């Protein structure tokens, strides 16, 4: 499913409307879009937007989502995350497909990392972002964090295997608890934090001590 144009253009409102129409009550359409979510080699990670023309639709989304490790193009990253949320929403097969995506590490010997781990890294980056005057960049965080949190919420909803993947990295839960208890964060941000925490209990089918629903509830309380 080849695409033309850059990631910014193809994650804009007009194209998002087309994607929503394609996936509405159409799980096969979602699967079609999800099937194109293939990571590009590390050499393409920092490629210019013009090179998106050579990628599939899904690869272009992943490129827009992961191309910058710093502040980067936040608008493009948020748009890509929003589209990926819609691609997998209420579709277990698509969620499992996204779960299997591993992004190539900068150093090949380190192996790939699940996309979920990268999203948590971006959440941490966005919450600690500073503006030029050294103060917290609240205006950016207002839309960056909710979009990332929404992607994670949609992803984990009704999918125990994804909850398990999330909890496999202990720092994820620890960091999420820190966000919830941070009084400086906006109520909408903390509300999404709480929803994500709730999913770690509701959709948790683990029997491993320390990772099961009761253990998570104890940690939260």
Automatic annotation (TrEMBL):
Transmembrane segments: none annotated. InterPro entries: ARM-like (IPR011989), Vesicle_P115 (IPR024095), Vesicle_Uso1_P115_head (IPR006953). GO terms for biological process: endoplasmic reticulum to Golgi vesicle-mediated transport; Golgi vesicle docking; intracellular protein transport; vesicle fusion with Golgi apparatus. Residues 18-206 form the Vesicle tethering protein Uso1/P115-like head domain. The keyword Acetylation does not apply. It comes from the Eukaryota. Keywords: Golgi apparatus. It is found in: Golgi apparatus. PANTHER family: GENERAL VESICULAR TRANSPORT FACTOR P115. This is OLC1v1035985C1. It comes from Oldenlandia corymbosa var. corymbosa.
């Amino acid at each position: 499913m080849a695409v033309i144009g850059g990631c910014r253009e193809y994650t804009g409102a007009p194209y998002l409307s087309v994607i929503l129409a394609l996936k509405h009550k159409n799980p096969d359409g979602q699967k079609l879009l999800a099937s194109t979510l293939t990571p590009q080699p590390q050499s393409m990670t920092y490629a210019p937007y013009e090179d998106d023309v050579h990628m599939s639709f899904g690869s272009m989304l992943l490129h827009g989502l992961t191309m910058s490790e710093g502040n980067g193009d936040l608008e493009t990253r948020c748009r890509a995350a929003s589209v990926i949320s819609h691609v997998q929403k209420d579709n277990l097969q698509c969620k499992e497909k996204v779960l299997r995506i591993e992004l190539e590490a900068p150093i090949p010997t380190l192996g790939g990392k699940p996309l979920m781990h990268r999203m948590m890294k971006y959440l941490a980056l966005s919450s600690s972002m500073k503006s030029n005057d050294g103060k917290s960049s609240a205006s950016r965080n207002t839309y960056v964090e909710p979009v990332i949190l929404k992607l994670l919420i949609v992803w984990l909803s009704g999918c125990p295997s994804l909850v398990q993947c999330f909890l496999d990295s202990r720092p994820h839960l620890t960091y999420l608890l820190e966000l919830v208890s941070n009084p400086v964060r906006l109520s909408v941000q903390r509300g999404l934090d709480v929803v994500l925490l709730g999913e770690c209990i509701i959709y948790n089918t683990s029997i491993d001590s320390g990772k099961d629903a009761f253990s998570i509830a104890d940690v939260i309380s």
